[in-house]
Inverse folding.
């Protein structure tokens, strides 16, 4: 099948128009990237959604599974013993399972962020033995992390079925 005949193009979504405060801009772009990567995984066909198309073994479902752990570690204070293992979803996890867990982690992270009015303040989380980063740092880190993996997902999804766009 040629790349042209199998290509399904998704309309590109422009960057968000956010409020004028720093917090609104940061949260707006983070939510935009969160939605971009979850949309790349939703609708991707089995088994391609979990099949590695690159030598590193990276796959669409694994990227979203990993980002679930990053959201939970950054905003909720969860500990992760083996970061490499977070790039692999369980074989019995469906796309809906992984997307659902990601969306739940995002919702819980947003609940935490809703209570943060000072970007310079430490992020409130339940790891008293580990200093928390500032809310600003956490938001910036998640924008970087999610954006990097959303870019990976763009390429992987295009390799799977030709779908492009955000």
């Amino acid at each position: 099948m040629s790349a042209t005949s199998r290509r399904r193009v998704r309309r590109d979504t422009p960057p968000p128009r956010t409020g004028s405060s720093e917090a609104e801009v940061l949260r707006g772009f983070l939510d935009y990237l969160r939605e971009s990567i979850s949309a790349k995984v939703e609708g991707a066909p089995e088994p391609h959604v979990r099949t590695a198309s690159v030598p590193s073994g990276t796959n669409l479902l694994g990227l979203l599974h990993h980002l679930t752990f990053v959201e939970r570690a950054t905003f909720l204070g969860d500990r992760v013993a083996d970061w490499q293992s977070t790039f692999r979803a369980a074989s019995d996890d469906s796309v809906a399972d992984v997307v659902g867990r990601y969306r739940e982690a995002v919702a819980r992270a947003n609940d935490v962020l809703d209570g943060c009015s000072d970007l310079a303040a430490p992020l409130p989380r339940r790891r008293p033995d580990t200093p928390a980063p500032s809310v600003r740092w956490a938001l910036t880190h998640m924008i970087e992390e999610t954006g990097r993996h959303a870019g990976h997902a763009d390429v992987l999804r295009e390799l799977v079925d030709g779908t492009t766009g955000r």
